[in-house]
Amino acid sequence: MAIPPDTQRQADIRTIVGGNFTGDALGRTYDQILARLTAAPGAYLDTFEHMFLRGPPRLAELSRLFLPSFLKRLAPHAPDRVRDISRRLLGQVETSARVVDQMVEQAGEADQVPEQTAVLAEDLGARRRELAALAGAAA
């Protein structure tokens, strides 16, 4: 299988991290994406890095998208690279989580933590745990 073009890899990655990447939801497309992913793990990791690790971290993407789920799928095919990317992404998540935690503390002092901020903190915590496991998985 030839390496899919960058636009296809980006679309596949967005589908995987979007939160509804299941065979039941996608049918044949699910299997097609997995086949492309496992046939060209290096190219997909290159694209992932370009999409999510170049430039400043975007809080909405770090909390809302299921970035670790993409990396978990490639860990068996490129464990060292997945570990490295996970560590770098974990650093971004931890920095963002500290900022959100400070917001929660300040709002908590006023007994008014906005629901959106609380959800953001919870999501970042989940991503932090998943990435920490991936970062140490190939160690």
Structure, described:
The protein has 139 residues and is mostly helical. It has one domain. Helices cover 78% and strands 0% of the residues. It is built from eight helices and no strands. The mean pLDDT is 88.
Tags for this model:
139 residues, mainly alpha, 8 helices
Q: How would the blueprint of this fold be written?
A:
Blueprint: H1 6-17, H2 23-26, H3 28-39, H4 41-52, H5 59-64, H6 67-74, H7 79-109, H8 115-137
Helix pairs in contact: 1-4, 6-7, 6-8, 7-8
Compact summary:
The protein is mainly α and 139 residues long. The chain has helices spanning 6-17, 23-26, 28-39, 41-52, 59-64, 67-74, 79-109, 115-137.
Shape: elongated
Question: Between the first and last Cα atoms, what is the distance in angstroms?
Answer: 31 Å
Question: How do the SSEs run, as a string of H and E?
Answer: HHHHHHHH
Q: What is the count of distinct domains?
A: 1
Helical residue percent band:
over 70%
Mean pLDDT: 88
Beta-strand segment tally: 0
Beta-strand residue percentage: under 5%
Secondary structural class? mainly alpha
Tell me the radius of gyration: 16 Å
Residue runs with pLDDT of under 50 for 5 or more positions:
none
Largest sheet: none
The number of helical segments is 8
